[in-house]
Write a structure and sequence with these properties.
It comes from Sulfuricurvum kujiense. The protein has helices at residues 17-30, 45-60, 67-75, 79-95, 103-113, 132-145, 149-159, 163-174, 195-210, 216-221, 227-231, 252-298, 303-317, 320-326, 344-359; strands at 38-42, 99-102, 125-126, 300-301, 333-336. By secondary structure, the protein is mainly alpha-helical.
Length: 362
Amino acid sequence: MEFEPFLAYEASAGSGKTFNLVVRYLSLLFMGENPSSIVALTFTNKAANEMLERILLTLEELPTRSELSHIARLSGIDEATILQERPKILARFLRSDIQISTIDKFFGRILRKFALNAGLMPTFKTVQNHHESALLERFLNEVEVSRSSEALVHLSLLSDKRLSDLFTLLSTLYSKYKELNLEAYEGTEAPEESMVYAFELAGELSRLVLSKPLSERAQKTMQIESFEDLLGKTWLMKPSLEYWDFKKIYEPRMDELLREIQTAVASQMRRREVLYFKELLSILKLYIKSRHSMALQSNELSFDDITLNVHTLLREKLESEFLYFRLDSRLKHLLLDEFQDTSVIQFDILRPLIEEIRSGIG
């Protein structure tokens, strides 16, 4: 079997993906690669530790392991030679700077190497989360200084969320804000208010329909207490009211009103969308600013902070060629476990590394 330099392995759970990753890693070692030139990444500390333990155990027990024949086929080296070289490979592996870790820790190592380029101290601490109360206080201070308190209250009303729920939402969006267009609604005008008009039209339709003989179930569908109640009516999305519930009492005016209601509701929902996202994105910018300033002051970074800073370095501050020159061009192979769990931002960071490896012999 010829060694494929670029390979994606897709299979269901429990079908041997990790087995194949270990075989590929060890095959590279027996083919002469330095362990420090092979980056193997996964998503949890447990998975990274298990991968390291499995590679080490396989090397130690290789004469009796099923991986031996697979390594021989993949590397093109006969089993006798592999077993003869095994002690030397094991000793080299134990002495090397092993690059088996979580993707977060890998990004952390990159950021420490380029911390000053990112405006950070290389001695930063990695924390699971920032102190929530301190971050909330800094965020609210940022809101007050920027005179955005009214926008925050308006956002709370538009989304029907308490401040604590909004804070949780902002924290979630922070990890993905590089994927968002924060200026998407800049200059977008919200349509005129049409909620009252839509409700008035719905009232006219209701009176028209309820003036006719209807079943009790059909009558209930036309009892409209509020605009929010109107939004929950299944007939609102119908192309016509000439269907089961209203077929016997149908007249063209019913569909005329339905279309006017649908137009007014669509305009009102577009208004809500524009107003909501305008406020949300403006408040999110303040939250991002709060996170950045807190990280700088405390010299503590969460995993989200690290990932976003590395992305900024790669995409905005440094040329990828400079980055790889500083990494000593040691990284020749990338093995990524559970690739489907990679976020857009994580893949965007890894993409230049993958392209750099593909341009060489790795």
